[in-house]
Design goal:
63% helix, 31 helices, five-stranded antiparallel β-sheet
């Protein structure tokens, strides 16, 4: 018998339990918590390495001020800190024991061991500095019997691990008290340490990461409302129900039931689901302008009440929405909403022949009525628009709705419905159906919001798979409304790539700035360069474009003129200046192949074949030269600086655990299944066609090998031009590593990141900073900056000739 069956349905006398325990419940919120602590670890590593000397001076000044603090106040602070620290370690297990959370006690014990262990492993990384003795220098202000000592940094890591691993079993005030104490303890240690005090940030991050990863992997136990509990809660609100069961096709917290008025849908919103929803809303508010997510419901009950109010207000204006039957709370505070079940089919599931113009017009009529009530739906994908047996259109899913919305927020619904219907029936029919129901001004106002990344996930996927995309929809709206060019607004506050680019450039400036202080020496080194190396340096740079052309010709069915393909590669050096790494070149290759008459699928497959071969050969060369460098002793000095093998193995293990934890999440598995696996299969299919021709194979792999080796020769000749006699194998290894960074860096051409990696690597090989920076400048001039002008000429020439 299912645990979701009520006692009455089961025919037993004993009442069914209102709750059941779910021992393994994973959440995106737990994954994000682990990501936050991982970010704190990275920040802590940065602080404990590059900012230690800066903070040491601040700590010395702070200690001079603390020495003037009265003795009695110091005694009070010391006693409070030590007592609170003991309370965290001792009272937490007692609270969990009192609540019979034995599994959390076991997790906490494991976290107490693993948190300091991870911190210890991180502290073994070369360059990480441990904090000095806390309160040193003020011991003479205290009695001899008083022990002047804060809890150690390892103890801070233990507390953070314990708090993160057992947070689910503690009340919110207790959790806030624990984290507040850790924050205060960290601040006190920073202010009172004699040197390098910022490793406490690393300790908090390491401990929190251990605890949060344990929660992510093992899940959390939760008391989930059963069908009997739902029935009891609704009965208290005056709504008698029967045959309550969980909807197997709906997300967790969704139930079906029978009421005197007919079948109903029941939604149960607990704190866990509400926090996950708030995370999504906060992200949307931070990234997008005027989405209405700046007003977030402070509690689950208020979120459900707002949804119910939107339903009642919409119904009063004649919108077909599910009738609200009850709003109540369960014993543990879960909010329960009951609405009439709509017997209909979603427009996203309707066959094409049933999605008539009349159906589309009625959908827009319902949206127009919703707009007259000033209600923004904010998630109006076609799965939430239903068609019933009588031909009526119903709008469901008002959980994100916002009453009293302004025109800018209401425009999102117009954009969403336009994009969703366009993906099903094409831009012409979608816009024609909308024009009869909403003014042209509303369609024009929705134009800036027809950004695929801003639409809901179902609409975005449907629009991506449709023959006509967002660009054709925008063109159609402009045509019928008479708008020559859409008045685009900045609907995005930022793009994730923008943040990555800013971070990469910030790190590059941080690492390059100290070298730029010795700019006169660098200029002197450039002036003394042996310019006889410049011709071969430029020849090596030209070889990279020949390699790219051979790779494209070898990976494409049919005959591709190598000189013309080389011109396309040269043009990509101009396009890549304004595009993310690899994207400009790939897009240009696809466009070139399409212009030569190849179908889009073949062009994409050929480009994928080339890029797959580039990646495979690059990794193969990287491994080969790494082994060669190790066997010849070319980088023995650098290998000696690496952490011990145990530390490296520990980090590899941690990385594998994090990858495993990510794959354990259903959303990540879905992305891998729907995006990564099809891309790999497409690349394999493309390579299968290439392997059928020996000439194509030789041409392809000769080209993709010439590409990284040409860059390596450029760097080697740049180093030799500066009078540095460095191992060729070591320089090639440095170049291949920089190429990997350039492919991963979010900046065009890897600007900033490549310079930082090359400079650090060359100085590590024993080259002085001034000639090393001069060699990097010479290398980047030959391979990145100088080709931009001829690349622009090539792009314009090929475009004028119709090649591009």
């Amino acid at each position: 018998m299912s645990p979701e069956t009520t006692a009455a349905d089961a025919g037993v006398d004993l009442p069914a339990p209102p709750y059941r325990d779910v021992n393994h419940r994973h959440s995106r919120a737990d994954a994000r918590t682990a990501a936050v602590f991982l970010a704190i670890v990275l920040v802590g590593l940065s602080f404990a390495t590059v900012a230690a000397e800066t903070m040491t001076g601040i700590s010395e000044d702070t200690q001079n001020g603390i020495e003037r603090v009265p003795q009695a106040l110091l005694l009070v602070v010391l006693v409070l800190v030590q007592v609170t620290y003991l309370a965290v370690l001792l009272v937490t297990p007692v609270v969990l024991l009192f609540r019979r959370r034995f599994n959390l006690i076991a997790r906490g014990a494991a976290a107490l061991l693993l948190g300091p262990l991870l911190f210890r492993l991180l502290s073994l990384i070369p360059g990480v500095r441990a904090s000095g003795d806390a309160l040193a220098g003020i011991s003479d202000k205290l009695p001899d019997a008083v022990t002047v000592e804060w809890p150690s940094t390892g103890a801070v890591a233990a507390c953070a691990a314990l708090a993160a691993a057992t947070a689910q079993g503690l009340s919110r005030p207790w959790r806030r008290a624990v984290w507040g104490f850790l924050a205060a303890l960290g601040l006190l240690r920073v202010l009172t340490a004699t040197s390098a005090p910022l490793d406490v940030v690393l300790a908090v991050g390491a401990g929190g990461l251990v605890g949060s990863v344990m929660v992510l992997l093992l899940g959390r136990r939760a008391s989930v409302l059963t069908a009997a509990g739902v029935s009891a809660a609704l009965r208290q609100s005056g709504l008698a129900t029967s045959a309550v069961r969980r909807d197997p096709d709906a997300p967790p917290g969704r139930y079906e039931a029978s009421a005197p008025t007919g079948p109903i849908d029941v939604k149960v919103l607990d704190e866990h689901d509400w926090r996950t929803a708030r995370l999504d809303q906060t992200y949307r508010w931070l990234r997008w302008r005027d989405v209405g997510d700046d007003v977030l419901a402070p509690t689950p009950s208020q979120a459900v009440a707002a949804e119910a109010m939107s339903g009642l207000l919409a119904a009063s204006r004649g919108v077909h929405v599910p009738t609200v039957r009850a709003v109540t709370q369960a014993p543990h505070g879960e909010s329960v909403l009951a609405v009439d079940r709509v017997a209909g089919r979603a427009l996203s599931d309707l066959p094409a022949d049933e999605l008539t113009d009349d159906v589309l017009r009625r959908a827009w009529q319902e949206l127009a009525l919703l707009r007259t009530a000033r209600i923004a739906h904010r998630h109006l994908d076609l799965s939430r628009v239903l068609l019933d047996a009588d031909g009526r259109i119903w709008i469901t899913g008002l959980d994100r709705s916002l009453p009293g919305a302004g025109d800018r927020i209401l425009a999102w619904d117009v954009a969403e419905l336009l994009a969703g219907t366009s993906a099903r029936v094409g831009p012409e029919r979608a816009v024609a159906a909308a024009r009869g129901q909403v003014p042209d001004g509303d369609l024009v106002a929705a134009l800036p919001r027809l950004v695929p990344s801003a639409l809901s996930a179902p609409t975005r996927v449907a629009l991506k798979d449709a023959p006509s995309g967002a660009a054709e929809l925008v063109d159609e709206v402009c045509r019928v409304t008479g708008v020559e060019e859409p008045q685009l607004e900045k609907v995005e506050r930022f793009k994730p790539r923008t943040l990555l680019t800013a971070a990469a450039l910030g790190l590059a400036v941080y690492f390059l700035a100290p070298q730029l202080t010795d700019l006169p020496s660098t200029i002197t080194a450039l002036g003394g360069a042996n310019w006889s190396w410049v011709p071969v340096l430029l020849l090596a740079s030209v070889a990279t474009y020949v390699g790219a052309a051979l790779g494209l010709a070898g990976g494409t069915p049919g005959r591709i003129p190598v000189p013309e393909a080389a011109g396309v590669a040269l043009a990509s050096s101009f396009v890549a200046t304004f595009a993310p790494p690899g994207v400009g070149q790939v897009g240009l290759n696809i466009r070139y192949l399409q212009k030569r008459g190849l179908p889009t699928a073949v062009a994409v497959s050929a480009s994928a074949a080339k890029e797959t071969a580039v990646l495979a050969v690059h990794l193969l060369l990287l491994v080969a030269f790494a082994v060669l460098a190790g066997s010849t002793g070319a980088i023995s000095g650098e290998l000696d600086k690496l952490p011990p093998a145990g530390v490296v193995a520990a980090f590899v293990g941690i990385a594998l655990v994090l990858v495993g934890a990510a794959i354990a999440l259903p959303r990540v598995r879905r992305v891998v299944r729907e995006r990564v696996v099809p891309s790999l299969r497409a690349s394999a299919d493309a390579m299968r066609e290439v392997f059928s021709s020996p000439v194509k194979i030789v041409t392809l792999f000769l080209g993709v090998a010439l590409l990284p080796l040409g860059y390596a020769l450029c760097l080697y000749f740049s180093v030799r031009a500066l009078g540095q006699d460095t191992s060729f194998v070591a320089v090639v290894l440095v170049s291949l590593t920089a190429g990997t960074v350039a492919a991963a860096a979010p900046t065009p051409g890897g600007i900033g990141a490549v310079e930082a990696v090359l400079l650090a690597s060359l100085t590590g090989l024993g080259i002085a900073s001034a000639p090393a920076l001069a060699a990097v400048v010479l290398y980047r001039l030959a391979t990145f900056w100088l080709p931009i002008a001829p690349g622009a000429w090539a792009f314009r020439s090929l475009t004028a000739r119709g090649v591009l």
